[in-house]
Each structure stands twice: as structure tokens, then as C-alpha cells.
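> @MW can you paste both from yesterday?
MW: sure, first one:
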Amino acid sequence: MNKRTGFIGGGNMAEAIIKGLLAGGVPAGELSVSEPSEQRRNFLSDRYGIKTIGDNSGLCEMSDTVVLAVKPQIAAQALRDIGTGSTGKLFISIMAGVKSAAIEGMLGSEARVVRVMPNTPALVLAGASAISRGYHATDDDLALTRSIFDLVGTTCIVDEKLLDAVTGVSGSGPAYVLTFIEALSDAGVKHGLTRDVATALAAQTVYGTAKLLLETREHPAVLKGNVASPGGTTIAAMHSLDQDGFRAATINAVDVCVARSKELGER
């Protein structure tokens, strides 16, 4: 990419992107992180051989592209000291709910901003990321951002107004899926399976089913129909899920998540 990439915030998602960049052939010398925790800085430096500092302004000065990887609640605090260090830089934000216009306001009205909503499977290079451009971002900025996040999973381009919906579906989605896996494992234990066997079966079932869906490109209902034979065990279980409001509970969870994302963006 021939771009020096810096990260403001050195948490799990920043680490996932760093892993993807290194795996994609980006030299460690082109990556740096600004992180307030000395322990975390030492960990990232020792594990990945990248430069770590505790100064956001200094990080910007040494970077062409800056990934904003802090929690949305501290966005203003994290960006306060950058000032003129934003000139000529591309800022990629992975902060949930914080609109590109708000970031442009904090950095300067001409700032080039691209927003991304990734998710935690990026930690194993299997993430799902949605990307949208700010007002001043160029086609090249969008292409560069996509090339970065393609290294940690799959990407799609959406209008910024849809990023709250993305947050509800894929951004927070891993937590819903993990809750389902945990419940499925609990059910297996209830019926006599050991915990390790039940969890392994549940997790592999989710992984394999997702892979089947992505590779066949069938509608989920079609693949579900292939499992639910007439008068069988699966259709009886599906009836129970419908009676207990499984679909409605899932949709309601996304509704609440989207509303919270919008609330954070209005602060």
C-alpha cells in the first residue's frame, strides 16, 4: 500500500487490523499505534514489532492514514490534540455511531474521513466490514480503506445512513451468535453431552451452516427446508422456536442496537 498507517487506540479491533495488514505483506515499520496504556503499548510492540507511542498528535505526524479505533464516547477527547496534524491525512473511523460530519468537525472541515463498521471475527481474519465515505473522501480513499479491511474478512460499501443498521446486524451480531451457541451448548449438556463436546458441536454447526449459505448463495429458507423433513424432528423444533418468539427476539435486539447506535451518534 506504500502508506504509513497509524492507529489511535490499540484495542482488540486495532490489533485485528494490524494482524491483517502484516499478513497481507505490509512491513511492520509502516505501522504505529498511539495507546495510553503502557502495558498495552509494550504488548503490541513486542508481539508485532510495530512502533507504539502515547501521543495522538505524534502518531498523526508519522502517518499517512490514521485509523480511529477508540470508543465513541471518548472521540472528542482522543482527537482534541491532533489540530493541524490532520492536514492531508486520511482518517478511517471504526467508532460506532459517530458520523463522518462530526469527525470532520473535530478534525477540521476539510478532513478526509471514511467510516467503517467491522466486527470482532476480524480477529481471526473472518470479519464483515461495511464502509462509507465522508464528504471529502476520494475514490482512492475508499479503495485504500477497502483494501485494508479486505485483509481481515469481507467488505461492502453502503451509504453512511445505513451504518446504524450495519451496527445492529453485523457489528453487534457476533454477540447474538455467541449467545445462541452458548444456549445450544447448554441444551446439549442438559441432555447428557459434556460441555466441550456440546460447545464444539454447536460452534461447528454455526460455522458450517454460515459457510454453506455463503458458498451456495441460496436463500436461508431453502437451506432450512433441506434440513426440516416432513413430520421430522427439525420442523418440530422450528415450531417451538417460532412459538417462543425466536425471530421476534432477534429483530427486537437489532432494533434496540440500531437505536443505541443512533443515540451515540447524536451526542
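MW: second:
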Amino acid sequence: MQSFEYRTPNTTADALAAVAQEDARFIAGGQTLLQSMKLGLIAPSALVDLAGVAELKGICRDGDAIVIGAATSHAEVAASAELRQAIPALAALADQIGDRQVRHRGTLGGSLANNDPAACYPAAVLGLGATVHTHKRRIAADDFFQGIYTTALDEGELITAVSFPIPARAGWQKFRQPASRFALVGVFVSQGPAGVRVAVTGAGSGGVFRATALEQKLAASWSAAALAGASVPADDLVTDLHGSAAYRAALIPELAARAVG
């Protein structure tokens, strides 16, 4: 691995100042960033560690939403009693990410900023109609995800928190790839302030997406039976060594029905 400076700010302001140097990168859990560096895909001049920035951590209720700090680990999200009561599907999603080591190192903000096409959190953010907060603005979920490993974030823009509207109902189902535990297909469904939403991860050639045809069926009747015979086009889905586009297309409505219960 190449040489780099290592900085440990204690506040958001200090972190932003530290990353202003050319080619510096934020690091939270480092689950993706460090692997990319080891493979020589990126070579930042400095890493700005967010682990010591307490204001980026924590989970609280704000009116009809749950707000989660960007540096909150997957394990902390999964264990939150408040979240388990308000949005149990989101806590369950966090509890299924990777293995124990990954859940204790990986963070919500890091997952979203990386926007891996098979990551779990993007499905929850899009499926709940959440809002991504940064140090300078708020970005609606529908505007945040812009393709594989691509988001609406500007260079040096820092995710500080995500606010999740509390839905009347929500569910999550993941068909995991057994080696990586990423989603071969993952489906998050919700019925809440933004209506019915169905978000799919792991299947789209452009990353996470909304299955609008399934949303329409569930809006008419929130039941697994409403999805009987439903189909999703395979045209824009992924084919790889783990499964074909047609296989993924067949999984999506099945997982959505299971998520509805």
C-alpha cells in the first residue's frame, strides 16, 4: 500500500478542514476504502478518520422520523431499542450486513457514500424515502443515488446524518451471496408518509432502484397476495456468475411478497 498522511479530527469542522487538502479522503469503517487502496484503485494523499467525531454518531427520534448519525456503526443501528420499536425492518437490515466484524466497523454514512450496487442500506434509504443530510444541504433519497458507486455528493461533501420517516409498515428481505453476504437481491418495502415504496438492491445494472410496478400493486392492496403473478423486466438487471438477470427478476417480486408478510 502507498504512503499517506493520517489525520484524526475531533469535530466536523476539523474533519472538513483536514480533507480540503488535494486527494485527501474521509475514512469511517474503511470496509471499502482500504480494499480499494490495497488494490491500487485509488491513492489518496491523506486519510481523515471520522471515528473520533462524536457529533456524527448516535440515533434519536425527531418528531415522526428517526435520525441516525453517519458514523454510527451497523451494530449500533441493529441494537438500537428505539429503532427496533419505530422501524424494526431497518434494524433487521443492519443486523444482516456482513459478519460481526463488518457490523462493528462499517458505518451508515460510509455505505451510502460508496453506494455499492449490492449494499443493503441504499435499499432502506430509498425504500423509506429518507433524507441524507450533509454539512451543507439535505438530499432526498430519490436524488441521492445516481448509478453504481455514484451519488449526488460533491467532492469533499460530508454525510452527517440520515433521517428516516417512520412508516406505518415496512419489511426487508435479502437473498444473500453466501461468500460476501452482499445482496444477490435485496428488497425493502414500506408504506408511510411518502406512500408505498419498493426499493431493490443487488439486481440493477445501475445500482439501487424503485420497482414502481410492485409499488402500484401494493398501493392497491398491501398484501403478499397482491404481488401474485407480478413480474419485473429483466432488461436492466445484472447477470453474473452468481445469477442471471432472469433469475434476479424472478426473485424481486418473491422477496417483496415475503417482505410484506
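> thanks! Residues 245-260 form the longest helix (16 residues).
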